[in-house]
């Protein structure tokens, strides 16, 4: 029987062997996922075919991005089904059609700004859009910064610096917005999500998280919920400590936890377990798609075990189907 995660109204059934790929196609690490207006699933991954497109049943539709992307990291889709693809390997954000045509490039490919300079970009991680279509970019591994751009890619302002105080970041890893224009930033190694207004003014922070890595704002209107992917232990000293993830947490608009999915007994490949949640998207039915960087994270979690072949093929993408009965 497939595993069931969560409780009450937030129960999800793990869909076994969701991705049905052509022979020889491997997803490897799935850095991020997005779902368009027709419930097609865009799988931004670090394999030979960076963008793999599936239907909601997991059937392969097409792939693209070969030779374009260096290292997949973040993926956001707008109301017009344009994809914002964040590549931390060549320090760019590319706005693309669902067929892979590049409409806009922000950043200079393969030319990072100086480390911790605050200038865009040095290993940028993700994007989000304001209600006006302005582009926020989290930046990332070689910066501790959020940048705000006009819809056509002109820099408007930046905020953030290294540190642990409010408004400071220790790996600014993911970013989302809501209908009111609030900006939510996964401050991964500070174990929190920080909340800002649209101009970068600090509002509050959500705690009681362990290495929040993925963020998804769910539902429109004034009371969204959020699904947060928590990466789990990253150090040998707490590698086998229970209740630290990897897992998904569902919270309300104030950061109060509504439900938690998995993570009680650490990572794994068994049904109902996660490896390294890195990207999250929901479809029109409320089903959750989870991209995981299980290949990259394997030796961190399982330093003395061989990696199963499935991790390199399909296991880095999971679908959780909402239980509706």
UniProtKB/TrEMBL annotation:
PROSITE patterns: NHL. Keywords: Glycoprotein, Repeat, Signal. Coiled coil: none annotated. Gene3D superfamilies: TolB, C-terminal domain. NHL repeats lie at residues 128-152, 160-199. SUPFAM superfamilies: Calcium-dependent phosphotriesterase (SSF63829). The keyword Transmembrane helix does not apply. InterPro entries: 6-blade_b-propeller_TolB-like, NHL_repeat. PANTHER family: BLL1368 PROTEIN (PTHR10680:SF38), PEPTIDYL-GLYCINE ALPHA-AMIDATING MONOOXYGENASE (PTHR10680). This is NHL repeat-containing protein. It comes from Bradyrhizobium cajani.
